[in-house]
Design a protein that fits this description.
The protein has about 290 residues and is mainly α. The protein contains 15 helices and 2 strands. A two-stranded antiparallel sheet has the order 1-2. It binds geranylgeranyl diphosphate (GRG).
């Protein structure tokens, strides 16, 4: 795993440099406060696991590095935009994210709302202005679908609509699959689309993405009750306080972790059938299971 952590940190650094470059170019065209607010949320830390998955999968499938970077940066912008909106008083109503005050605490609710919308649109603008092939354009569609009304927006709206109501476990799984899993899944299928991968490879990567997406959310539920706010960088115990239906509420911590482990094992074993060096992806799956924040 030593090489793995080194490679992960290299990818992370590249993404952070990529974000800085994109923002440097855009600075003169935006109102100062909007720029500061957008940049605050996309550069204020985070594990960059989505961007890293995009870069590593593109590398594995021999996708050109600059194209991979365009998408890694865009995916992190979409993710940051969803976090800004998730923390708003009308949503999760949080005050802390990545160990720092949430966007709306620093810039106010109205600016945070613009920053979230701005980042989302900026991500697509950044990609669409460079789209020079069918694969590139299709991959933008994959991202838009993951972020949109059958992906993150679907999951979050169901989450809000069903708050305080009795829901069954299947509905919970749909919420998680959409809210958290869709973007993680896209981090695997975007590279496969860019590489015009064969259908079997696309399926393996998509299944891998779905399984690690489910595991990611289960571990998130577990960490909400087992970690402290300072470890998490956000308020711990929020699900319990809101009496939210989670894997932990239904199954308890141990069984929930066992379920996450099963998803990770299934994700890793699925990789065996593709003819590429997928060690990095397998190690990332293990990282998701063992993460502490
Ligand atoms: C603007 C696309 C868009 C959607 C708005 C508010 C909302 C609708 C969706 C919220 C989606 C959301 C935040 C789901 C939770 C996903 C999740 C577990 C996030 C935490 O990801 P980490 O741990 O965070 O990778 P870091 O900070 O490391 O990047």
């Amino acid at each position: 795993m030593t090489n793995y952590y080194h490679d992960y940190d290299e990818y992370k650094l590249e993404i952070e440099q990529g974000i800085e470059e994109v923002f440097k170019k855009a600075k003169k065209d935006m109102p100062r406060e909007l720029y500061d607010s957008m940049k605050y949320s996309v550069t204020n830390g985070g594990k960059r696991i989505r961007g890293v998955l995009v870069l590593a999968t593109c590398h594995m499938l021999n996708v050109d590095f600059y194209t991979a970077m365009d998408f890694a940066v865009a995916v992190e912008m979409v993710h940051a935009s969803s976090l800004i909106h998730d923390d708003l008083p009308c949503m999760d109503d949080d005050t802390m994210r990545r160990g720092k005050p949430c966007n709306h605490i620093v810039f106010g609710e109205a600016v945070a709302l613009y920053a979230g919308v701005g980042l989302l649109n900026f991500a697509y603008e950044h990609l669409l202005l460079k789209a020079d092939s069918i694969q590139y354009t299709k991959a933008i569609g994959v991202l838009a679908r993951a972020a949109g009304v059958t992906g993150i927006v679907k999951g979050q709206s169901m989450d809000i609509l069903y708050e305080g109501k009795e829901i069954d476990f299947e509905t919970l799984k749909t919420i998680h699959k959409s809210k958290t899993g869709a973007l993680i899944n896209a981090c695997l299928t975007i590279p496969a689309t860019l590489a015009s991968a064969s259908q079997p490879t696309m399926d393996v990567l998509s299944n891998f993405g779905s399984s690690i997406g489910v595991a990611f959310q289960i571990v998130d539920d577990v960490l909400d009750v087992t970690s402290t706010s300072s470890e998490l960088g956000k308020t711990a115990g929020k699900d319990l306080e809101a009496d939210k239906l989670t894997h932990v509420k239904v199954f308890g911590v141990d069984k929930a972790m066992k379920m996450a482990e099963e998803e990770i094992n299934s994700a890793i074993s699925g990789l065996e059938s593709i003819l590429c060096d997928s060690c990095f992806l397998a190690d990332t799956a293990k990282l998701i299971l063992n993460r502490r924040n």
